[in-house]
Design a protein that fits this description.
Number of strands: 6
Distance between the termini: 13 Å
Radius of gyration: 17 Å
CATH architecture of one domain: 3-Layer(aba) Sandwich
Structural class: alpha/beta
Shape: globular
CATH topology of one domain: Rossmann fold
Order of helices and strands: EHEHEHEHHHHHHHEHEHH
Oligomer: single chain
CATH class of one domain: Alpha Beta
Strand content: 5-15%
Helix content: 40-55%
């Protein structure tokens, strides 16, 4: 049985490094691809739209010889995964939606994203999103794991302001892809932290329901970055999904 490759799409305002602890647990026999969205070379070439991001991910996968994969996306990565599913359905053999949602932003959330993008661009710094470290991590992580807090804060500090602004504008422009998910007939997994205050458990239950009663994994004592806060649990769930795809289930 050939092991289906896994593609891991990161959240905002981070990069591929947030998946490192999960990726190393997915097994040596399974190819794992962890792109940056957008890639550094793409910042001036695409978007800012998630459609363009999905097209670039698809092109990168094809260039790497991958024509079919399990696609897992956390937060913004989930939005990109759903765009990939809509625009390049043959690529998506299985789908994992982690701490994310399928709906578009409400008008006030969209306006806030555009304001943050403008602040980041005008200041040439990521000051406007530094405080997100206290939002994306769960209460347990913030109080009991200062090393994780410091690591995530460091990743945010190291983001190019241009990528932060690009991502905010792309997310603000995204469309509702609930029906795209509903039509997908392949295996789906939904994961959420029980302390996720950004998307939350109820949104995850809605996703699982839309996906025909897909398995829902609620990660205890984790917030919006379950893949960072509890990589072992997330990796175990992804391995099970990938095995379902391998077996044609």
């Amino acid at each position: 049985m050939t092991a289906t490759p896994v593609v891991l799409l990161h959240g905002f305002p981070l990069d591929h490094r947030m998946w490192a602890d999960v990726a190393e647990r997915l097994g040596e026999d399974r190819r794992v691809l962890v792109p940056d969205v957008p890639a550094a070379d793409d910042l001036d070439q695409v978007g800012p739209t998630l459609d363009d991001a999905a097209d670039r991910v698809a092109a990168a996968l094809h260039g790497a010889g991958v024509d079919r994969a399990v696609v897992a996306g956390l937060s913004m990565g989930g939005y990109v995964a759903l765009a990939l599913l809509e625009r390049h359905p043959d690529l998506v053999a299985g789908l994992a939606l982690v701490d994310t949602r399928s709906t578009a932003d409400a008008p006030d959330a969209r306006a806030k994203r555009l304001d943050v993008a403008a602040q980041v661009e005008s200041s040439g710094s990521v000051d406007a999103v530094r405080g997100m470290v206290g939002t994306v991590l769960g209460e347990t992580t913030r109080t009991a794991h200062p090393d994780v807090v410091a690591r995530v804060a460091g990743w945010i500090d190291e983001q190019p302001p241009a990528r932060v602004a690009w991502s905010q504008r792309a997310m603000a422009a995204r469309t509702d892809r609930t029906e795209v998910l509903r039509r997908f007939t392949g295996p789906v997994l939904v994961v959420v932290g029980d302390e996720d205050e950004v998307t939350g458990v109820e949104a995850a239950r809605d996703l699982a329901k839309v996906a025909g009663g897909a398995p829902l994994v609620v990660v205890p004592r984790a917030g919006h970055l379950t893949a960072v806060e509890d990589p072992a649990t997330v990796a175990t769930a992804l391995v099970e999904l990938a095995r379902r795809v391998d077996g044609g289930r």
